[in-house]
Design brief:
alpha/beta, 391 residues, 39% helix, 10 helices
């Protein structure tokens, strides 16, 4: 067996070991389905780290949502021998009802449609591979640990009133008359010094910013979005290392806003003018119809219902962020294309769509069939709502 085959066999064995000793979703301390809490307790790491990892995966093409649903379905609940999915195929009993299991399974369809339907196939597969790699590293390095029994420390037992300092719980009241022991308490053991993962990670992040600033004139492809992506990768690596060494938790407060900023810079393409306004044109003649109505952020309410019953007109309505509504006459022949290039909701003469990168198009002849005023519409927004309505 070659070295590559041995390495692949080792990865497969580690993942099989993960499944054999998979995390259990606890009933206490969970925020939603207990997936993140169960993983944290299984490998004795901070649950905040696991939750941040799922948020980061959700922002990276939406991968975190179906992965969380898979964990909800495949990991058993506390006190159960099998997972909800295994219970559904009669392999045992689960506290999760069959109806809830089916509902979770149905939620997988829109989650997967959003994840794989956004055009970022390569990014999605790379993110899934990174998630599987994270599971492999956890099992490889911390799989030998016994799962934590609780994430909450038990409350301290209050001392008995009148008890001496050497017997605060009142276990030996018959000896309370004895004098206090005079032997000095042993010095406290020195606390182990935590690795300075946070400072080291911030240092690497500053080097990334400085290096990008120097390299930018010579590498135009190194955009602001790329720099933010590099910073997110550095901070995520610092958090991953800190989860094993017990440091770097404060990096969360930088990772979350940078992840949101990076998602906005990569998922939403703002190329239009930086105008913020609402316009409501209502032309009454064909000559008054402009070839293009455009806003940066805001809304357009275009009313074409006062146009004459004959002739033809062509116009486009565009926005970076906002609501676009076009009213057309009941009898006009309308050829339309409606699009939300990033995220939006479309409702154009009965044709609807919503999600990321959606488009509808078609031709509607109105109440009287073909004939009369002809309108050619192109309505698109980056983020927002698009409507084309009759009457």
């Amino acid at each position: 067996m070659s070295g590559t085959e041995k390495a692949m066999q080792g990865v497969a064995d580690t993942l099989r070991e993960f499944w054999a000793h998979r995390p259990v979703r606890p009933r206490a301390g969970r925020k939603l389905g207990g997936v993140a809490t169960g993983i944290a307790m299984r490998y004795r790491i901070d649950p905040v780290i696991v939750r941040i990892a799922f948020v980061a995966l959700a922002l990276s093409g939406g991968v975190g949502v179906p992965l969380y649903l898979v964990g909800w379905l495949a990991l058993p609940d506390e006190g159960d021998a099998v997972s909800p999915l295994e219970s559904l195929v009669h392999k045992g009993q689960s506290a999760t009802s069959p109806a809830k299991t089916v509902l979770l399974g149905l939620l997988m369809f829109p989650a997967l449609a959003y994840t794989f339907g956004g055009g970022g196939g390569f990014q999605v597969f790379v993110t899934i591979a990174a998630a599987v790699g994270g599971v492999y590293l956890l099992q490889k390095n911390r799989g030998h640990l016994q799962p934590a029994t609780t994430l909450v420390e038990p409350p301290p037992v209050p001392p008995v009133p009148g008890a001496p300092a050497w017997d605060p719980l009142g276990a030996a009241p018959f000896a309370w008359d004895l004098p206090e022991p005079s032997a000095p308490a042993p010095p406290p053991a020195p606390r182990p010094r935590k690795p300075r993962v946070g400072l080291a990670t911030l240092g690497v992040a500053m080097l990334v910013v400085a290096g990008s600033t120097i390299a930018w004139p010579f590498a135009p492809w190194l955009s602001a979005a790329h720099v933010v992506g590099l910073l997110v990768a550095v901070l995520a690596a610092g958090l991953l290392i800190g989860s094993f060494t017990g440091g770097g938790r404060g990096l969360v407060w930088l990772l979350v806003p940078l992840s949101v900023l990076g998602f906005a810079m990569t998922a939403v393409d703002f190329d239009g003018p930086a105008t913020v306004r609402n316009v409501s044109p209502a032309p009454k003649t064909l000559e008054e119809v402009q070839g293009r109505y455009e806003v940066g952020v805001g809304g357009v309410q275009l009313d074409l219902r006062e146009l004459p019953d004959s002739g033809s007109v062509r116009t486009s309505v565009e926005a970076d962020l906002g609501e676009l509504v076009v009213h057309v006459p009941k009898t006009a022949d309308v050829t339309f294309t409606c699009e939300a290039t990033s995220i939006g909701e479309l409702d154009c003469l009965g044709r609807k769509a919503q999600g990321g990168g959606v488009q509808v198009e078609g031709k509607d002849l109105g109440d009287n069939g073909e004939g009369g005023l002809k309108i050619d519409l192109d309505v698109r927004t980056n983020v927002g709502e698009v409507k084309v309505l009759r009457g």
